Structure formats: structure tokens, C-alpha cells
Amino acid sequence: MTISKENKMFIDSLIDYYISESESYRQIAENFVPEVESIPDTAFGIITGCVYSGFLQAYQNQQLTPGLED
Q1: What separation in angstroms does the CA of 70 have from each of 12, 27, 29?
Q2: Which residues, other chains included, contact 7 with Cβ-Cβ below 8 Å and sequence gap of 6+?
Q3: pLDDT of amino acid 62
Q4: Is residue 21 scored above 60 in pLDDT?
Q5: Is residue 70's pLDDT more than 90?
Q6: Which tens digits make up the pLDDT trace of 46-66?
Q7: Whole-angstrom Cα distance, residue 30 to residue 24?
Q8: What pTM was estimated for this model as a whole?
Q9: Which of 11, 29, 45, 67 has its C-alpha lying 20 to 30 A from 37's C-alpha?
């Protein structure tokens, strides 16, 4: 199974949104100093988690199960 066009467009829009708001996530990461070693890595991890969560939510809303290739 491959990612549907609609899901791909949704994921692309999530990525675009989080890229445009990346400075906000960097500021969030700064609030965790000294617990975090790298602010850019922490911000990237937050953004990646949000995109992944959106990906899973899109599949769940459609009552689908993503395959490993997705």
C-alpha cells in the first residue's frame, strides 16, 4: 500500500506548516536548557513527532493501517 494523494498532500502541508513555525519550536526547546544538549536537535525532534503524529492520525481517521513502506 502506498500513501494516497490526499494523505501525501496533508503530510506535505503539515511539513510546510512546521517549517514555517520552526522558530517557535526552537524557542520551546530553549525552555528545556540545560536538560537538552542541543536546541536544534530538540526542536527537530518536536517537529518530527508532530508530523508523525499527524500522519498516524490521518490514517486512524480513515480507519486505515499504515504499512511499513508508508
Answers
A1: 14, 31, 29
A2: 55, 58, 59, 62
A3: 83
A4: yes
A5: no
A6: 999 999 999 888 888 888 787
A7: 10
A8: 0.78
A9: 11
Is 60 exceeded by the pLDDT of residue 41?
A: yes
According to DSSP, residue 63 is labeled T
Q: Each residue of 53-62: b (16+ CB within 10 Å) or e?
A: ebbeebbeee
Q: What is the pLDDT of residue 1?
A: 57
Residue type, 42: T
- From 4, 6, 8, select the one nearest 51 (Cα to Cα): 8
Residue from 50, 58, 52, 48 nearest 7 by CA: 58
Distance in angstroms (rounded) separating the CA atoms of residues 26 and 15: 15
Q: Which residues contact 66 (CB under 8 A, 6 or more apart)?
A: 1, 55, 56, 59
